Fold this protein.
Amino acid sequence: MMTQPDNNDYFQRKEWEAQEKRDRYRVAAGMMNFLGVVLGVAAIFLLLALLFSLVSWLLQDVSSTFAILRTRFR
């Protein structure tokens, strides 16, 4: 037969375990959020670098195309 204090200890221990589990999930969610932000910022910088590279290539291509056209029409 279980006495009242043992019963309370059992439920209190279960509540602590549940709280520890919630805390672990909260920490894991916070870390995933942080990693998501870091990876997002890295992706933005990578895409900006690709965009600047594309614009640079496009400007060089346009200028060389006009240079070729100028030499052909002389």
Notes: The chain has one helix and no strands. The longest helix spans residues 4-72. The chain has a mean pLDDT of 91. The CA atoms of residues 34 and 40 lie 10 Å apart.
